[in-house]
């Protein structure tokens, strides 16, 4: 008489270990994918990167057919993010093209690829900062509150310049909290030079903290930033000069338009309290009151709030997704404060 052996303890423990390592990623990733599927179309701020990814995938080396040459927009944007996402998604797009699926599925493919990269950076932040410093319980709070914050996951798959910088800023936060000043400065430099020049505002408060804590000397910081900046400038100028068919560093032109000419405010501004009375409550939801309470009992959260307030105070032209770069620093330490 044959009997069926019960499942081994090793297999169940292996599954538990898998859920422990990747369960929160599956939850957060599935919610982001759900948002992308339910809202597949894009808004005007995303038009350049969406069209750029389309042209890279379908026109390839025939740059004269690219849309941006006829409709360049207010300021030029880099092709770096669009190229990376298009290359990574190209096998799926080729398969979809072979079976004659609509181009909307190609759009979903590149958006899903962007979401994977952005959420991988968020995972790195969660593991390096939250799990290793505060343990699995605090990580659970972090993941759950992240999952119920609509704006962060909704925008994680949308090809905005701010979201392209968002992943690098998350990596910078991770390295900063981990005590790696060189990697922190490199990530911020790359985000500033290539994707979003406004990120330079984070250099001030974070750089001051690194210097005051003696994590890095002034000379070492300057050397690190200059070498990283030169490398990033070479890559973005070479790529975008070829794509735009003129010598170009996109974020330099954006900086000139926004900061020197101060013309970004022509597209709308909000009062300073808008962030606190509208944007942050809608983004943080239940984490917002916890953040306010924890800032009264934790000097570490107060320090992080200073960086966020500085960043928001400097920005005159209000683009909602810019504040996403500040949310994760508010989304970990107060969890530890209320649970430990």
TrEMBL record:
> What pathway does this protein act in?
Protein modification; protein glycosylation
Provide the top EC class: transferase
Cite the GO molecular-function annotations of the record: dol-P-Man:Man(7)GlcNAc(2)-PP-Dol alpha-1,6-mannosyltransferase activity
Places the protein is found: Endoplasmic reticulum membrane
| Transmembrane domains' residue ranges | 22-41, 79-98, 104-122, 134-154, 160-177, 221-239, 272-293, 300-324
Task: Identify one Pfam family in the record.
Answer: Glyco_transf_22
Q: Which reaction does it catalyse?
A: an alpha-D-Man-(1->2)-alpha-D-Man-(1->2)-alpha-D-Man-(1->3)-[alpha-D-Man-(1->2)-alpha-D-Man-(1->3)-alpha-D-Man-(1->6)]-beta-D-Man-(1->4)-beta-D-GlcNAc-(1->4)-alpha-D-GlcNAc-diphospho-di-trans,poly-cis-dolichol + a di-trans,poly-cis-dolichyl beta-D-mannosyl phosphate = an alpha-D-Man-(1->2)-alpha-D-Man-(1->2)-alpha-D-Man-(1->3)-[alpha-D-Man-(1->2)-alpha-D-Man-(1->3)-[alpha-D-Man-(1->6)]-alpha-D-Man-(1->6)]-beta-D-Man-(1->4)-beta-D-GlcNAc-(1->4)-alpha-D-GlcNAc-diphospho-di-trans,poly-cis-dolichol + a di-trans,poly-cis-dolichyl phosphate + H(+)
Per the record, the domain of life is: Eukaryota
InterPro entries in the cross-refs:
GPI_mannosylTrfase
Q: Which UniProt keywords apply?
A: Endoplasmic reticulum, Glycosyltransferase, Membrane, Transferase, Transmembrane, Transmembrane helix
Name where it mostly resides.
Answer: endoplasmic reticulum
EC numbers listed for it are 2.4.1.-
Give a GO biological-process term.
protein N-linked glycosylation
The family annotation for this protein states:
Belongs to the glycosyltransferase 22 family.
From the Swiss-Prot or TrEMBL record, give the protein name: Mannosyltransferase
Question: Which organism is this entry from?
Answer: Musa troglodytarum (fe'i banana)
């Amino acid at each position: 008489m044959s009997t069926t052996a019960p499942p081994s303890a090793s297999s169940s423990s292996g599954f538990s270990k898998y859920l422990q390592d990747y369960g929160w990623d599956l939850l957060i990733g599935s919610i982001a994918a759900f948002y992308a599927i339910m809202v597949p179309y894009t808004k005007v701020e995303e038009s350049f990167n969406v069209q750029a990814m389309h042209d890279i995938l379908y026109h390839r080396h025939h740059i004269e057919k690219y849309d941006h040459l006829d409709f360049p927009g207010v300021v030029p944007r880099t092709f770096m993010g669009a190229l990376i996402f298009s290359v990574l998604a190209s096998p799926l797009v080729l398969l979809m093209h072979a079976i004659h699926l609509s181009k909307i599925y190609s759009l979903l493919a590149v958006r899903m690829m962007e979401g994977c990269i952005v959420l991988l950076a968020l995972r790195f932040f969660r593991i390096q900062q939250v799990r290793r410093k505060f343990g699995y319980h605090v990580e659970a709070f972090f993941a759950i509150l992240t999952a119920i914050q609509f704006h962060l996951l909704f925008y994680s798959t949308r090809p905005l310049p701010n979201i392209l910088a968002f992943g690098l800023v998350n990596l910078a936060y991770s390295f900063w909290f981990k005590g790696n000043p060189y990697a922190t400065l490199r990530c911020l430099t790359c985000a500033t030079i290539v994707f979003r020049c406004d990120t330079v505002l984070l250099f001030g408060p974070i750089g001051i903290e690194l210097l005051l804590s003696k994590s890095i000397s002034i000379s070492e910081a300057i050397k690190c930033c200059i070498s990283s900046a030169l490398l990033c400038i070479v890559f973005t100028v070479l790529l975008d000069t070829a794509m735009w068919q003129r010598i170009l560093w996109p974020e330099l032109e954006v900086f000139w338009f926004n900061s020197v000419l101060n013309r970004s405010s022509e597209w709308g501004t909000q009062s300073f309290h808008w962030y606190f009375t509208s944007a942050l409550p809608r983004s943080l939801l239940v984490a917002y009151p916890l953040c306010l309470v924890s800032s009264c009992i934790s000097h570490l959260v107060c320090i992080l709030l200073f960086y966020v307030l500085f960043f928001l105070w400097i920005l005159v032209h209000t683009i909602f997704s810019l504040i996403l770069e500040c949310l994760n620093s508010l989304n970990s330490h107060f969890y530890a404060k209320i649970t430990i």
